[in-house]
Amino acid sequence: MQVETWNAAELVAKDIAHHLHPLTNLYQLRREGPLVLVRGEGVWVWDAEGKRYLDGFAGLWNVNIGHGRRELAEAAREQMERVAFVPTFFGLASPPTIELAARLAELFPGPLDHFQFTSGGAESNETAIKIARYYWWLKGQPERVKILSRRMAYHGIAMGALSATGVPAYWEGFGPRPPGFIHLTAPYKYRFGEGLTDEEFVARLVQELEETIEREGSETIAAFIGEPVQGAGGVVVPPDGYWPAIAAVLRKYGILLILDEVITGFGRTGTLFGMQQYGVQPDIVTFAKGITSGYVPLGGVGVSDEIAETLASADRVFMHGFTYSGHPVACAVALRNLDILLAERLWENAAASGAYLLQELKRLEERPYVGEVRGKGLMLLVEVVRDKASKEKFPPEFKLGPKLEAATRRRGIIVRCTPDGIVMAPPLTISRAECDVLIEGVAAALSDVLD
């Protein structure tokens, strides 16, 4: 590959002058500038000055097959040359969109056989919420509009998805949220289930769900939305019995289950889908990120046969969709990405590498400021606390996240650093030796900041 040269200072200056970054402290960025990445290969990326970093966050949880896979670039080129854009409005379609829907029907467990495509996770969850409400409207129960979610959940930043998101920091300053969203306790045993067995903790969460349904009235609730493993809210791995118990209650009251597989889908947890970790079957599933490994934007929603039949039973237009729903180039890339994922069985490496990372990172719990290390597959978090006995967090003025971010980047790794600690989600292709680089970088960065 020909090595390109970049004027890093000029790029940084232009970025500061013109680019509004999402999920970024814009005040801080104006003073320090961005890290400009210009090339990627496997689990590695390079900045504009030539420094190499291990991408310990797979872009944004999404570069599952790794950087620099030419097969995906070729798939995009071939489709662009054939026909670059075909809408899916008004009964139109293109071959890649049709083939991708059919492939997903084969891959998803159970009767999830019907798909509408979006441009990403927030659009997918927005779509799922609307489909759930529309389904009940068609069934003659228009009062079923409430959505149950969990605290610490992240479902996106579109207004409906934002209301389902259970992290208050995402709401602040953006005005009133749409009504009808109810947040339950996250299955976060480290903080909410101390002293309880897994069975006791699950029983407490199930009791809360039953009491909430009885208080609100099951006839007013459309759906419960949840990530199999909560991601951006803190890599909350539920006890094994949690999802079967929650699903049983929802079935009892006729409430739809929406599983948000935006992060957990396509191999990240160590199975092809996160739902397979827990043996639970949703009525609706959302996905994005790993379906194209982030090479182009694509997301979608899958619904059960029964929901699809209900949607098709009404002789009226289904008034929902996006300009780029089912974009043929994105779908062509997704098909090639799935070919690679399946041929290389990358979920198996996610399971093995994730288990190794969890085992080795658990050693950090010996340190006085590491409260818990947890994970499922290649979703891991080192939770940092000020006081281990009380589990007290560092105060905001300590700026733990920015300090850890600076330290990890100095050590040559890119991870997500938050006020809670360090989150890791490397590409599913990561090798044992590359895992060791990530482990050493995280351990050293923690020492730099807290020892």
Automatic annotation (TrEMBL):
Keyword presence, Transmembrane helix: no
CDD domains, per the entry: OAT_like
Swiss-Prot/TrEMBL keywords: Aminotransferase, Pyridoxal phosphate, Transferase
A GO cellular component annotation in the UniProt record: cytosol
InterPro entries referenced in this protein's UniProt entry, alphabetically: Aminotrans_3 (IPR005814), Aminotrans_3_PPA_site (IPR049704), PyrdxlP-dep_Trfase (IPR015424), PyrdxlP-dep_Trfase_major (IPR015421), PyrdxlP-dep_Trfase_small (IPR015422)
Any one GO molecular function term: transaminase activity
Cofactor(s) needed: pyridoxal 5'-phosphate
Pfam families: Aminotran_3 (PF00202)
PANTHER family, sorted: AMINOTRANSFERASE, AMINOTRANSFERASE CLASS-III
Family the entry assigns: Belongs to the class-III pyridoxal-phosphate-dependent aminotransferase family.
Listed name of the protein: Aminotransferase, class III
Lineage: Bacteria, Pseudomonadati, Thermomicrobiota, Thermomicrobia, Thermomicrobiales
